[in-house]
Amino acid sequence: MTSDNIAPDEQVLPVPRVLADEPVDLAISRSDRVFTGKIWDVRSETFDYNGENVLREFVDHPGAVAVLALDDDDRVLLIKQYRHPVRSREWEIPAGLLDVTGEDFLVGAQRELAEEADLEASEWSVLLDYATTPGGNNELIRIYLARGLRATETTFERTDEEADMELRWVGLDEVVDAVLAGRIQNPSLVIASLAAHASRQSAWTSLQPGDAPWPEWTRLHPAAS
């Protein structure tokens, strides 16, 4: 044995670090809005990276919330809605933009569930947060798990693509099977159903409180927080 009681042929492994993304705030020398759209904008930014000026253009997005509503029979509320960019009527979960100034994330999710499905819930948890397309936009989505469901006292009038939405209750296992078979591809539905399936297997111990902070969104939207 060596003086520190480690055999010469014994490998010393490093202490594992927690697997996590690393927030980086670089010096931005120029930031311009090059397109102003009805829902979101396109921004061009120049920043210093490893001593070089780098130019990138991306969709500047306010962020969004989505809701996986789960009833007492482990059925998920799905909404079929037309999405023009992909020319499809997709199965989705209720979701909406964080475009109301100063609105709390959870309040926004509760509003979307009511507006799109005429439902409210007594139990709210954060299922997970994710970035939709980090190479092309700064959109962040928080997905909530809503349980203890009941109908709202009033119903909402829906227009445009929401006017002919189809609602369906589908077992969580059936949704996961459809995801893995590639029959449904909406990202929030895919991610939420797989996360809920995994969390259920661990007795929902991965869930966070409904009012949990969202530091990554706050970091990217300091003026709105």
Automatic annotation (TrEMBL):
Keyword annotations: Hydrolase
Domain of life: Bacteria
Domain Nudix hydrolase: 59-192
CDD domains the record matches: NUDIX_ADPRase_Rv1700
Enzyme Commission number: 3.6.1.13
Class of the enzyme per the UniProt entry, highest EC level: hydrolase
Pfam families assigned to the protein according to its UniProt record, in alphabetical order: NUDIX
Transmembrane intervals: none
Gene3D superfamilies xref list: Nucleoside Triphosphate Pyrophosphohydrolase
InterPro entries documented for this protein: NUDIX_hydrolase-like_dom_sf (IPR015797), NUDIX_hydrolase_dom (IPR000086)
Molecular-function annotations in GO: ADP-ribose diphosphatase activity
Protein name: ADP-ribose pyrophosphatase
Record organism: Subtercola frigoramans
